[in-house]
Amino acid sequence: MSVLIDKNTKVVVQGLTGKEGSFHAKQCLDYGTKIVAGVTPGKGGLTWTDDEGKYQVPVFNTVEEAVKETGANASLIFVPPAFAADAIMEAADAGIKLIVCITEGIPVNDMVKVKRALEGTEVRYVGPNCPGVITPEECKMGIMPGHIFKKGRVGIVSRSGTLTYEAAYQLTSRGIGQSTVIGIGGDPVPGTTHKEAVEMFNNDPETDAIVLIGEIGGTMEEEAAEYIKECVDKPVIAYIAGVTAPPGRRMGHAGAIISGGKGDAKSKMEALKAAGVYVCNTPAEIGEMVEKALKERGLL
């Protein structure tokens, strides 16, 4: 079993005919993802073909038309930042229940409006500014390099794209693999939080352990720690980036800023340790720590 996506997921790509959409749609199709439609306003009725002529996908003017004609149930978004919020809401209005937005640079105010609009709905929104979601050997929705992932029983949730790849590679190298990997992105208003992803993995009977990769800034990791302490019996292994970051300075990701003495790596690591989480001091320890945790629980 996997969370969010599997081999039966039918994906519509919003922005399929653009440079980024075309390139990554081809990669997803090569991985085996069922991309059944594309959406680009004004180009409805055309057929998108990849540069090798290997795949052909029908293009529609609206997500509603794409869903009606193809049965798409998940959307992958590559539209420019100025139009991304509208693209997310269009997908939700068309009945799409899983929306993954790769676009970076979306205004925070736009994401606040989207977040509020989707509250209380059944829509699961991942992103923006994220690498996407992958269930190894079944389905990839995003820009992750598929070859480093291997089917397994460890779930990964991460704010960092490159650290997502690093953790996955370490698990694959040790023959452990992943159940599903969720890149939630580094923006200050994410669609899916650490706590929500951990909850999904905790409820998945085929996920034995959870890797949580966080950053400085915000309180998502602390909120996840509270949930883990109260509800999670599975081993959780965590790494928090930004230990040496100076307070008050914005560092890389939009959400990575320490202010008011809160949101620093030390406080997040302490909160996770208090919840019984295996906390790594460096990203190089993630694979080793996961293997140790699984062996201690008799799961490896």
UniProtKB/TrEMBL annotation:
SUPFAM superfamilies: NAD(P)-binding Rossmann-fold domains, Succinyl-CoA synthetase domains. The keyword Ligase applies. CoA binds at residues 17-20, 43, 102-104. It comes from Thermovibrio guaymasensis. This is Succinate--CoA ligase [ADP-forming] subunit alpha. It comes from the Bacteria. The active site is at residue 253. Belongs to the succinate/malate CoA ligase alpha subunit family. Succinyl-CoA synthetase functions in the citric acid cycle (TCA), coupling the hydrolysis of succinyl-CoA to the synthesis of either ATP or GTP and thus represents the only step of substrate-level phosphorylation in the TCA. The alpha subunit of the enzyme binds the substrates coenzyme A and phosphate, while succinate binding and nucleotide specificity is provided by the beta subunit.
